[in-house]
Specification:
- The chain is α/β, with parallel strands linked by helices.
- It folds into 2 domains: about 25-50 and about 295-400, Aspartate Aminotransferase, domain 1 (Alpha-Beta Complex); about 60-295, Aspartate Aminotransferase, domain 2, CATH 3.40.640.10.
- The chain is about 40% helix and about 15% strand.
- The protein has 14 helices and 13 strands.
- The protein has helices at about 10-25, 60-75, 90-105, 115-125, 140-150, 160-170, 195-205, 225-230, 260-270, 270-275, 280-295, 300-315, 340-355, 385-400, and strands at about 40, 45-50, 105-110, 130-135, 150-155, 180-185, 210, 240-245, 255, 335-340, 355, 360, 370-375.
- The strands form 3 sheets. It has a 7-stranded mixed β-sheet, with helices on both faces.
- α8 links the parallel β7 and β8 (about 240-245).
- The longest helix is centred in the last third of the chain and has 20 residues, at about 300-315.
- The radius of gyration is 22 Å and the shape is globular.
- It starts with 10 loop residues before the first helix and ends with a helix.
C-alpha cells in the first residue's frame, strides 16, 4: 500500500531563509578555485582578495608546503584516533612544545580549531557555581563555552574597565570561581583589548584571566607572539588561547598555560577527548610556520606597512572605517561600516563584479545597523593590487550610495 506523504518537519527553515532573502541578507558560499592568495579565483572570476585571514601569506609558503609533504610521506595522512586513545603522535608533541617556547609558558595543548579551543577550555575549567565576566564583543566561541560551562555570565560593556570592575565587585563575595575573559584583538572591529587594565582587575578580584589571541597571533608582539607580548603582561594571563588557522596559515587552535592546566584539559576538555587529532601534515605545517615567524620578521613589517597605507587611503576616500559609533580599528582588520544589511550585501556583490572580494557581514555576526565589509590586509598584497582595489571601492561606493 502507498505510504502517506509525510509533512516536512523542517519546512519552517524555508520560511526563515525566505525572510533572509526578502531582507537582502541571504548569501551563497563563494568557491575558491586556486590558492588562498592576494589575487585568486572565486566562482570562475579572478579577484583581489580582501577577505582572507591569511595575514602573512603562509598558506602558500614553500617551507610550509614542503613540511606538509614530508610529514605525509613519513607518517601518512591521518592520526587514526583521538589524542587520549592512540592519536597522540610525536609530531603533535613537538608542535605543542614549540608553541609553549614561543609563547613563553610552561605547556600547550592543540585543539582541532580555535573555536574548539575556546569552547572546550572555558566549559572545562568552570561549573554552575562559578562566574564569567565577559566583554560584550567577545567571539562566539567564548560565548558558547561560557554557556556550556553553566556558570553565571556577566557581560561588561566593550572595553569598559569601570563596568568590568563593577561586575566583578558585584560577585566578589559570592562562592565560586571568577573568570575574566576578553579577545586580544576583536575580530569584527579590529581593536585591541585593554589587557593591562584587565590584568589589574583580575589580580584585584583574584579572578582567572583568559585572553583569546586568535587575531593577534602572528600579528602583534615580537615575531607575532600576540597581545600578551605586545603589552608585556607575561605571567599575568592565566590562559592564552590562539589559532593556527589565521596568520599561522593552517588549521587548529591552541591553549597555553601551566602544566597542570594542560594536564587538566587532557582529562576534561570535551573537544580534545572526543575529536580525532590533527593529520601529521597539519602539525608539521604549523611547526614550520612558527619557524618562519622567527626567521622572517620582515613579513610582519610588510603587513603593518600595508595596513597603515590601507587605513589612510580608505579614510581619505571618505569611508567609515570605525570610530564613529563603533570601535576604531588598530590592526590589519579594517571594517568599512555601511550600516544597512541589504546595502552592505549589494555593495559586496557589486565589488565582486568589479574584481574585488570584500565579504559583507550582517546580523547576527554583527549587531543590527552595524553591517560592514570587513577588509583584512596581508603581507603579500602588492602596491598595485591595493591601488586597484581602492579605485574599485571608490567607484562602487559612489555607484551604490555608500560614498556620497
Amino acid at each position: 500500500m502507498p505510504t502517506a506523504t509525510r509533512a516536512n518537519p523542517l519546512s519552517y527553515l524555508t520560511g526563515q531563509l525566505n525572510d533572509l532573502k526578502s531582507k537582502g541578507t541571504h548569501f551563497r558560499l563563494r568557491v575558491l578555485e586556486d590558492e588562498q592568495a592576494p589575487v585568486c579565483t572565486f566562482d570562475g572570476k579572478k579577484v583581489i582578495n580582501l577577505a582572507s585571514n591569511n595575514y602573512l601569506g603562509l598558506t602558500t609558503h614553500p617551507k610550509l608546503r614542503e613540511a606538509a609533504l614530508a610529514a605525509t610521506r613519513k607518517y601518512g595522512v591521518g592520526s587514526g584516533a583521538v589524542r587520549t586513545i592512540a592519536g597522540t603522535m610525536k609530531i603533535h608533541m613537538e608542535l605543542e612544545e614549540k608553541i609553549a617556547r614561543f609563547k613563553n609558558v610552561e605547556a600547550c595543548v592543540v585543539f582541532q580549531s580555535g573555536f574548539a579551543a575556546n569552547a572546550g577550555t572555558v566549559s572545562a575549567v568552570l561549573g554552575k557555581d562559578d562566574f564569567i565576566i565577559s566583554d560584550q564583543l567577545n567571539h562566539a566561541s567564548i560565548i558558547d563555552g561560557a554557556r556550556l560551562s553553566r556558570a553565571k555570565i556577566l557581560v561588561f560593556e566593550h572595553k569598559n574597565i569601570a563596568d568590568a570592575d563593577a561586575k566583578l565587585a558585584s560577585v566578589q563575595h559570592e562562592p565560586g570561581k571568577k573568570l575574566l575573559i576578553s579577545d586580544g584583538v576583536f575580530s569584527m572591529d579590529g581593536d585591541i583589548g585593554p589587557l593591562p587594565a584587565l590584568c589589574d582587575l583580575a589580580e584585584k578580584y583574584a579572578a582567572i584571566m583568559i585572553v583569546d589571541d586568535a587575531h593577534a597571533s602572528g600579528v602583534l608582539g615580537r615575531n607575532g607572539r600576540g597581545t600578551i607580548d605586545h603589552f608585556n603582561v607575561h605571567g599575568r594571563v592565566d590562559i592564552q588561547v590562539g589559532t593556527l588557522s589565521k596568520a599561522i596559515g593552517a588549521l587548529g587552535g591552541y591553549v597555553c598555560g601551566t602544566r597542570d592546566l594542560i594536564d587538566f584539559l587532557y582529562h576534561r576538555a570535551r573537544p580534545f577527548l572526543f575529536s580525532t587529532s590533527h593529520p601529521p601534515s597539519v602539525a608539521a605545517t604549523c611547526i614550520a610556520a612558527f619557524e618562519v615567524l622567527e626567521q622572517e620578521p620582515e613579513r610582519i613589517q610588510k603587513l603593518w606597512e600595508n595596513t597603515r597605507f590601507w587605513k589612510k587611503e580608505l579614510g581619505l576616500l571618505g569611508f567609515n572605517i570605525g570610530g564613529v559609533n563603533t570601535p576604531a580599528s588598530e590592526t590589519p582588520i579594517t571594517p568599512i561600516i555601511v550600516g544597512d544589511g541589504k546595502l552592505t550585501m549589494d555593495f559586496s556583490r557589486e565589488l565582486f563584479k568589479q574584481g574585488v572580494l570584500g565579504t559583507g557581514i550582517t546580523y547576527p555576526t554583527v549587531p543590527e545597523g552595524k553591517a560592514r565589509i570587513r577588509t583584512i590586509m596581508t603581507a603579500t598584497h602588492t602596491q598595485d593590487e591595493l591601488d586597484q582595489a581602492l579605485r574599485m571601492l571608490k567607484k562602487v561606493g559612489q555607484q551604490t550610495g555608500v560614498l556620497n
